[in-house]
Amino acid sequence: MSSARWVGAFLDSLSAERDAALNTRLAYARDLAAFSDWLGRQGRDLATAGAPEVDAYLVACEAEGLSRATRARRLSAIRQLFRFAQEEGFRADNPVLRLAGPGRERRLPGTLDLREIESLIAAARATPRDAVRNACLLELLYATGMRVSELVSLPVAAARGDPKVVLVRGKGGKERLVPLSPPAREALRDWLGARDAAEAERPEGRPASRFLFPSRGAAGHLTRQGFFALLKDLALRAGVPADRVAPHRLRHAFATHLLAGGADLRSIQAMLGHADIATTEIYTHVLDERLSELVLTRHPLADDPKSSPDADRSTDP
Asked: Which PANTHER family does the protein's record reference (predicted)?
């Protein structure tokens, strides 16, 4: 069996047995295609490659300048492919069973402060076109912590009846309920009215859209790329540095601000749709970093005692 057929069979199993999302399957396909191409240039294939070849591939990836996270992700895809191949009888062994990988860097997520969030929402409400829609997008994203792919593909049925919670379909088709804040509910009502009025005037013969944020593109709804471009424009209007603004940063802001406000990790995990609470725990590091900064800059005893006017203060009662 050719390497391409190996990869194809593995991707089919991801879809059929694990119900993996399309973006997940595409990511595996890219990583495994890169590995297969590299093997081909070495005169090897997936049937004959061993641990030395995989190790040499990772070294080549590092020499290419790929980050440790990218190399770890590629090795993960290779591990899963070889495990699948052994289970299916394509190979008698798994050459990467004991291969140590580069590991993943535990990077703190970038986030936005409340002032920046408020500036972005204000800019959305003031846009010359689609202000009601743009305000709804920003309010919903910050109020729920949805992934941008979940937000733009929301069905309009999720908004009917002035809901206090919204049903979100996440990775792998898993569903979760996320509460809506009063500002988000108000923005949703305003947009639903404007959206329905526009839909009522659609040309004869064009079917009604089932999406909350419809578009005439192939997807039928606003795309992730379209939202990303919108967010960059709003950052410019709001005076927030564009390199600080990305859809996922609003999701991080949602989680970080909730945690700072006293929410528990389990609740945040459920709202974010994390399968493992270890993924959610990274936000405690963000909070710890901020609390440490507060102690170092605001605590009355944080100053250098040598420069303090009370430096010679006695410690005796």
From this structure: PHAGE INTEGRASE-RELATED, TYROSINE RECOMBINASE XERD
What is the residue range of 41's domain?
Answer: 3-88
Q: Is the CB of residue 124 less than 8 Å from the CB of residue 134?
A: yes
Identify whether 283 is a catalytic site residue: yes
Instruction: Kindly report, residue by residue over 285-301, the tens digit of the pLDDT.
Output: 666 555 555 555 555 65
Q: State the Cα–Cα distance between residues 70 and 212, nearest whole angstrom.
A: 34
Q: Is residue 251 annotated as part of the catalytic site, yes or no? A: yes
Rounded CA separation 241/191 (Å)? 27
Residue 252 amino acid letter: H
In the chain, the amino acid numbered 64 is E
Residue 115 annotated as catalytic: no
Task: Supply the CATH number for residue 141's domain.
Answer: 1.10.443.10
Summarised one tens digit per residue, pLDDT across range 63-90 is 898 888 888 889 889 999 999 988 888 8
Residue 250 belongs to a domain: yes
Cβ atoms 215, 221 nearer than 8 A: yes
